User: Fold these one by one.
Assistant:
Number 1:
Amino acid sequence: MNVNINTVQFKADKDLKSFISERVNKLSGLYNGVVGGEVTLRIDNAEKENDKVSEIKLMVKGNNLFAKKQSKTFEEATDSAVEALRKQLLKYKEKIKERK
């Protein structure tokens, strides 16, 4: 699965990018219809403690799933967003199964 990682007003290091790619790629193992992913990282109001935002759009056949989470670190925000997408993906998979 192809995962595009975009950053807003900062440059992410390769460790962060590989961490995010690894986490998002695990979602493709849950459902064969996952086509790709797009991750946007940004810092929201730098003076706040929980200022790291991770937005993930997961493209699946016939639909797009989206999760946005905010936390102290990009890793925590990404983990939370991936967990939310995992739940959405499992619900979507069941919904597709019921239609058949």
Note: The CA atoms of residues 24 and 82 lie 6 Å apart.
Number 2:
Amino acid sequence: MAGNRVVAHHRDGRLVKGSTTDFLPTRDTLHIHTEESVETVRLAELKALFFVRDLIGDPARQHSNEFDVNRSLHGRRIRVEFTDGEVLVGTTQGYQSERAGFFVAPADHEANHERVFVLQAATRKVTLF
């Protein structure tokens, strides 16, 4: 699969795993090439779009929301609480509350997801610190 490996987390809990070459934060849709087909995904239906190292991941791994004190940070620290209760901590370089979405680089540098595009409508609370 060419393009960015992604996992689309829908607000209703569905996941779509594959790759995309046409994601833009300003567009309403993107196409995810799965093993079986090409799915059109509407950003308005997503909680977040995870850009991942691989599509399998490690389900047994416990993710950390702690920053590694030995690594330099790029951007501002952010804590995102989603409407489903999940919490994501990381850094952002472009958070603006009036935008539909924003990118977060996870605090856990060993996580499978390298960056996450968070949909503002799927958040309960966003804290910059």
Note: The chain has a mean pLDDT of 94.
